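User: I'm putting together notes for a lab meeting next week and I want to include a structural view of one of the chains we've been expressing. I don't have a solved structure, so I'd like a prediction I can at least talk through. The sequence is below, exactly as it appears in our construct file.
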Amino acid sequence: MEHDQFKPSQLPPQTYSRLDDQDEDGLALGEIIGILMEYRWIIAGVIAIGVFLGAAWAFIVKPVYRADALVQVEEKGPGGSSAMSALKDLGPLLGIGGDTTVAAEQEILNSRLVLEKVIQKKRLNIQADPRYFPIIGEAIARRYKDEGLNTPWLGLSSFAWGGEEIRVDSLEVPRDWLDEKLTFVLGEGGRFELFADDDEPVLTGKIGERASSKGYSIFVPKVVARPGTRFKLIRLSPDEALDRLTKQYAIKERGKKSGILEVSLKGDDADKIGVVLDDILNTYVRQNVERRSAEAENTLKFLETQLPEVKRQLDVAEAAYNGYRQNRGSLDLSIETQSVLGSIVEVDNQIVALKQERDELRQYFTPEHPRLQAADAKMEKLKARRAQFDGAIAKLPDTQQTVLRLARDVEVYTTLYTDLVNTAQQLRVTKAGTIGDVRIVDPAAVTTQPVGLKSVAILAIGGFLGLIASFAVVWVLRSLNVVVEDPEEVESKLGLPVYASIPHSDEEVVISKRGKAARGSGTLLAVSHPEDDAIESLRSLRTTIHFALLDAQQNSLLITGASPGLGKSFISKNLGAVLAQAGKRVVIVDADLRRGHVNKEFGLSRETGVSEYVAGAANLDSIVKPTSVENLWVVTTGQIPPNPSELLMHLRFEELLEQLSERFDTVIVDAPPILAVSDAAIIGRHVGATLMVARAGRHPIRELEQAVKRLHQSGVSVKGFVFNDLNTDRQRYRYGYKGYVYRYSYKETA
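Assistant: Thanks for the context. Below is the predicted structure for the 750-residue chain, given as structure tokens.
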């Protein structure tokens, strides 16, 4: 059955508004989905590449392990046991005790004081690695777990493939070669050569022996590798070695004000990072203990410098007192005098102790410090009280005064010396028993599995990045693709109607491939698959052609295109079959005298056709050939002539079209593309209407403009376009209802 088509003028203005609104509402998302479906294989391919690269990265990248440990920072007194509690009064004098801030300990843990000792001890300033095959060599070697050395791939024995090992205990280089790569080449018999930047080795040596030359020195106790294997050696500068360690090293407090520090170290050698982290913690704890014991040691040194002088003064005082008593005889002090003596001794002891404390404070504080000023004020009070006692002594007899003075000196120096000896002994005990205010709670423990992204996560990320990249690829392709994809663009840019949009037909692709492979007769889509969407669209075109030829003087129709490969012959043949099936007498004239092939689909020979008729070698009846389709005839090209354009300009070709128009209801002329040759412009003057075939995704709009312009310049008026091979999937998402503009399938009902 035929379906009438409304002309644009038949639609009321309100309908245009509703259609435009629907297009604007559904265009954005639908168009995007349509484009994605159109490029779905490119998107899938780019995603597959992303997943593949993710898998390659997961295979190549080194696994990273982490060692964790816990350290507690706590406040401690001068000693580590209750037996030292008697020394609490010495805290202000010794400068120990008080708060230990966690932030300060974090900085110490991260300081050169600790880390550089570990770098030197563990030889972290020497990098020694085998030379692997680029990209995949290290991954292959890392996965080799058997005994001995792995077999070299492709005979490349200078690379390490698994099982190689080198230990460098010492490496010294000139200052200019710090952080620069050196090449170590193992030779026969344990010999080796060390290269810098040229072909001459800077030194040669033997495994297990120190070798030195030209400012270079190296000691390699062990190498496991094939002769000829190369290793990369680097002597790191102190700053570079410290920087590499701190990049993998982290410290943080676990919980606010908990005093617990979590220390971690990352690296690709699970065995090594645990040992290094333990050494960092032990070095840190050791320096903490040494720092606290050093405070007691400094005070002890000060007291030991005072003891000899106090002992000398005590001896002098005892000798003077004993000598005076021997000269004067045994003298006894009265009770009142003894009381004064005791008070004087007490004050003098306080003055001496205060002087010692003040001398100790001056090592830590300036004279303006409140503690020193308080000590000075207390000293003035003691001196004033001492002066009062001196006044009382002045009233005593001379003998009593002398005995009192000598006895006082003995008592003062005896008490002072005894206190200093006791304090020094206590400090010695304190120094020996001092422990730090930090301790290791948990030693280093290394994770059994690598940290970081798992293989599944890497693959997922690769796929996601591939998806993003595929969108970028589609955007670039769409930006570079300036061809016409939408029939509406043809109408808006050229001002010509699109009479029919022919959807892509998978069945036609199969038929075309089968025909090329058989090299013989083919079949028509309109005959083998009459319900195909493309044929349905041609049935709609059938009605449009009826109106297009109403005002024409001839009932002939020219079908051409801008360039080859547009499917104009497909349109001509199947349109002719559709018209014939409707009961019209139709003839198809293959006017492509260069590459015409309409005869193949009908199983006809090329000979005896247009060329023979124009040349006068055949009559009309001999060139009009019936086909298997009722009411459909074909005029083939005949022999391919050397001058096609001249034949088409001959009067006999015009007579041919006129005679065919008289015999048949519709004459369809299949002509060559207009931009390739001028044949279509010649034929177009003798037909009733001309249709241009455009193919989706094939033309820039300028190409179609040029084709129409070429025909117009030749006096041929183009009625409109047939838009071929439209992407139905994309249009389905854009318009909905399976592209109602051009699709309406038959459906059997019960």
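A couple of points you could mention at the meeting. The mean pLDDT is 82. The chain has 25 helices and 22 strands.

User: Perfect, that's what I needed.
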